[in-house]
Amino acid sequence: MNAGGHGRETRDVLRSAWVVDLLGGGGEEARTPVDLALGYRSSALGDAEVVARVELAVTADRPEDCEARLAEIVRWRREHQPGGSNAGSVFRNPPGDSAGRLVDACGLKGLRHGGARVSEKHANFFLAEPGTTAEDVRRLVLDVRRRVAAATGVVLVPELRMVGFESPPTEGAAP
């Protein structure tokens, strides 16, 4: 999906990725960044493909500089994002807007399905309490997506992949 944060994306450092098709026999296939067509929270990976390993290009830096950068990222995240069990941002930001802002504007902070709930701290993070099922998370994602589309006309696109369900939400599909 070309994960990213704090001004960097996977495509900035990716040299190669080895991909496994969960439905195609399980062997690894090497792919280049060009093969993967990495964009904003997107790639050419299929719904049943997962990245098993990668080769990254890194540069050496002084340990104290690395520690300072990491400390700043951790400080920022603790201030702005919830902790606990979550999968990070649930929806991609639509062009010119923020998914979290839209979810918040629709009054959905705290909305819950089973053990999954929209974070009160950042509305694009969904928290999972002990015992939460994948179906709880899926129902919450679909419900939030439907409510935001009904209220704003914006169809949010999930960043996370929901593997194993009959009809995962897709970019062009109505909620």
Description:
It is built from four helices and nine strands; from the N terminus they run ββββαβαβαβββα. The protein is of the alpha+beta class and 175 residues long. It has two domains: 4-56, no CATH class; 79-152, Uridine Diphospho-n-acetylenolpyruvylglucosamine Reductase, domain 1 (Alpha-Beta Complex), CATH 3.90.78. The strands form three sheets. It has a four-stranded antiparallel β-sheet. It has a three-stranded antiparallel β-sheet with strand order 4-3-5. The longest helix has 19 residues, at 134-152. The chain is globular.
Helix proportion = 25-40%
Instruction: Give the CATH H-level superfamily of the largest domain.
Output: UDP-N-acetylenolpyruvoylglucosamine reductase, C-terminal domain
The strand order across the widest sheet is: 6-9-8-7
Largest sheet data: 4 strands, antiparallel
DSSP helix count? 4
- Distance linking N and C termini: 21 Å
> What is the mean predicted local confidence, pLDDT?
86
* Elements, N to C (H/E): EEEEHEHEHEEEH
- Tell how many strands the DSSP assignment holds: 9
Strand content: 15-25%
Oligomer: single chain
CATH architecture identity of the largest domain? Alpha-Beta Complex
Rounded to the nearest angstrom, the radius of gyration is: 18 Å
> What characteristic shape results from the CA principal axes?
globular
Total domains, how many? 2
